[in-house]
Design goal:
- The protein has 463 residues and is α/β, with parallel strands linked by helices.
- It folds into two domains: 173 residues, Aspartate Aminotransferase, domain 1 (Alpha-Beta Complex), CATH 3.90.1150; 250 residues, Type I PLP-dependent aspartate aminotransferase-like (Major domain) (Aspartate Aminotransferase, domain 2, 3-Layer(aba) Sandwich), CATH 3.40.640.
- Helix content is 39%, strand content 12%.
- The chain has 16 helices and 14 strands.
- α2 runs antiparallel to α11 and α14 packs across α16.
- The longest helix has 20 residues.
- Bound molecules: ligand F0G.
- Ligand F0G binds next to α4 and α5.
Length: 463
């Protein structure tokens, strides 16, 4: 290529204003939200990096598809467009639409798991874990050891630990109804899984007659990392790589709110006829008929178009590069984070950045509040608030205190990223003055969504 600038590979047809606020307005909004960013009004946020889920911008082709949406209750044309695309990419026999990823998880686990079963995964996402545990089964995380060390550079930190997987399969005959790999590994830093690892995990599972599933939310981003990092794949298209990933599995769960480039939707896809039938029965009970699964016909059209657009090379190049570009600026300033940067997000390492805040004063939570206060940026804590509370009510601090900056798809441009870098570099100059928070009210489960906090020492940033 002749020019090195990587541009946003789209032009902007519809814009949505975002609003600047003063530090005083943000301080008041944060107080009113009880220092919980989930409780802010979105219009008080300047750059919203809470999640990359359902927050992307749809293309003109997706909107055109939505106008074609067929709202027939059964057998809608839109379903066949959706089914055809999902089958072409994944190769799976049964394609079951759901309203989002966690519905696919619930339906699969309801049909496949029994109390006392074990489900290995590289790292379960929180809804996946919760849905496994809801069946009184054990959600076992088996990332490679490199995946647990934030600063260590490794091309495929999302890989599953194959030896640990084999030990689990060998020691628990009849107790592992399925194994999963999450691509990319969201809870592990948005890190990719290599095709070599997927191939080996698939072979192991099949040797033990255990079905192998992929949590495919970010399959296109994972395919891009394989193309750019795994020897032998540079000349393959993301579509070909994705197809090869899925060919190793017996099924997948998917949130189309990520690499489906849609605002809502998901699916469960699998080959086993008997299991599929039980899942479909389950679907009808709570989601809807098998040709819409809780979605409108127009949603199915948006996903059918979005899944292909997510595999476009120019788009993937721009997307992965945006996160990496921010990471390079922060790394140059010595700001600690999970390296390499992930596909959909950058994960700041609050434990290393703010070592003076003890874990029981929630350093990552405090940092996420400061990013809002200083720059109007909304992020999400992935630390003690999210994971510290155990099912038996005890507190067990997790190994890392991270703040995730998740990038909505096709929403922000390079100048937004430059602004983010400027705010973070400014926060770096305040770091020694940042203080912890105290939890004043907390629900018994999934507390990060609604817990209330206050500064533990009078102010979030000491004078
Ligand atoms: N699996 C992974 C790896 C996810 O990241 C998510 C959602 C789900 C499953 C569930 O999908 O939200 O459509 O029900 N992750 C979002 C996030 C919420 O912010 O990381 P869903």
């Amino acid at each position: 290529m002749r020019f090195k600038t990587i541009i946003e590979p789209f032009r902007i047809k519809t814009v949505e204003p975002i609003r600047q606020t003063t530090p005083e307005q943000r301080a008041a909004a944060l107080r009113a939200a009880c220092y919980n960013l989930f409780l802010l009004k979105a219009e008080d946020v300047l750059i919203d990096l809470l999640t990359d889920s359902g927050t992307g911008a749809m293309s003109s082709n997706q909107w055109a598809g939505m106008m074609r949406g067929d709202e027939s209750y059964a057998g809608a044309r839109s379903f066949y467009a959706f089914e055809g695309t999902v089958r072409e990419i994944t190769g799976f026999k049964h394609i079951i639409p759901t309203h989002q990823g966690r519905a696919a998880e619930r339906i699969l686990f309801r049909a496949a798991l029994h109390p006392g079963d074990i489900v290995p995964n590289n790292t379960h996402f929180d809804t996946t874990r919760a849905n496994v545990e809801y069946r009184d089964a054990v959600a076992l995380d088996l990332p490679i050891p490199e995946g647990r060390q934030p600063h260590l550079i490794h091309p495929f930190k999302g890989n599953i630990d194959l030896e640990a997987l084999e030990r689990t399969l060998a020691a628990n005959p009849g107790k592992v109804p399925l194994a999963m790999i999450t691509v990319t590994n969201n809870s592990g830093g948005g890190q990719p899984v290599s095709l070599a690892n997927l191939r080996a995990a698939s072979a192991l599972c099949h040797r033990y007659h255990v079905p192998f599933f992929i949590d495919a939310c970010r399959f296109a981003e994972n395919a891009w990392f394989i193309k750019t990092r795994e020897p032998g794949y540079a000349d393959k298209t993301p579509f070909e790589i994705a197809h090869e990933m899925f060919s190793l599995a017996d099924g997948c769960t998917m949130s189309a709110k990520k690499d489906g480039l849609a605002n809502i939707g998901g699916f469960l896809a699998l080959n086993d006829d008997d299991l599929a039938q039980r899942c479909k029965n389950n679907l009808i009970l709570t989601e809807g008929f098998v040709t819409y699964g809780g979605l409108a016909g127009y949603d199915l059209e948006a996903i059918a178009v979005g899944l292909r657009e997510a595999l476009d090379e120019d788009y993937l190049h721009y997307r992965i590069r945006s996160v990496e570009y921010l990471a390079e600026k922060l790394a140059a300033a010595g700001i600690p984070m999970v390296r390499p940067s992930g596909g959909h997000a950058l994960y700041l390492d609050a434990k290393a950045w703010l070592p003076h805040i003890p874990q029981n004063e929630f350093p990552a939570w405090a940092l996420s509040c400061v990013l809002y206060l200083e720059g109007g940026i909304r992020s999400v804590e992935i630390g003690s608030v999210m994971f510290g509370l155990q099912p038996d009510g005890t507190e067990k601090p997790p190994a890392n205190e991270l703040v995730r900056l998740a990038f909505p798809r096709r929403v922000y441009t390079q100048s937004h990223v430059d602004y983010l870098a400027e705010v973070l570099l400014h926060v770096n100059t305040l770091k020694d003055r940042i203080r912890g928070v105290r939890m004043v009210k907390s629900p018994p489960t999934l507390r990060h969504f609604t817990a209330e906090f206050e500064p533990a020492h009078g102010a979030l940033i000491a004078e």
